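Protocol step 4 of 6.
Sequence for Nitrate transport permease nrtB (Rhizobium loti) entered exactly as in the expression construct, tag removed. Do not edit the line below.
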Amino acid sequence: MQRPQRKPLLSMAAEISGSTYLFIAVCAFLLFIAAWFLATGLGVAKPIFLPSPAAVVAKLGKLAADGTLASDIGNSVYRIMVGFLIASVMALATAILIGAYRFWEAAIEPFLDFVRYMPVVAFVPLTILWSGTGDIQKFLIIWIGTYFQQALMFKDNIKRVPTDFIGFGRTLGMSDLRVLMRIVVPSAMPQIWDTLRISLGWAWTWVTLAELVAANSGLGYRITVAQRYLQTDMAIGYILVLGILGLATDQIMRFLGRHFFKYERKS
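Step 5 output, structure tokens:
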């Protein structure tokens, strides 16, 4: 007797509509908030350790009213944008080089593998010595935390381009540079975009780490101040703000990816 075929798990994604997906996601957040209300309302956790959601919202409202919250968000977003952009451009250039030429792959990739296993935290005191505690140090931490990972992931994206595409360019008499710029990179861009979206989350982590240690502004700095004065409501509030900003940037990247690469979704 022939065994019945099992339905692939990945095909189940098509069974959930967009509205259903959104409903489930919202319910998950509501359950989290309800559990938080319950824990604080029943006195399971003391306010010094876990303040109520109302207390956290009130604190954030006070910080928003005097401009502190907006200033901290602006400083952190600026550092993210500059540091992440520098790292991404350099990583993409490196990935094209090592993804297209075996000589450069042998010369560069082992070193990238070597550095990417070094903990970024260990570089924080060194970057302070090298560049002080200004924005350049924040850019450097973001670069160290994202560039080496991105370069290798971009290289894998480029390597996945079908060889038939490259062969087609050869038959048209295109030069190596034109094959790379007109065929390889555009073909890999949907995957490269996904890599950018994922690595943007790392950049948020690294800038917060840098601000926790050496800064006088930003979301990470404000968490350090809250810890120093046992202002748990402010610390938790800023952690939630970080989560909201990260989720927002991730969803924006998803939306732009669906808009830019409609042909990939159709295929």
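Step 6, annotate. The radius of gyration is 23 Å.
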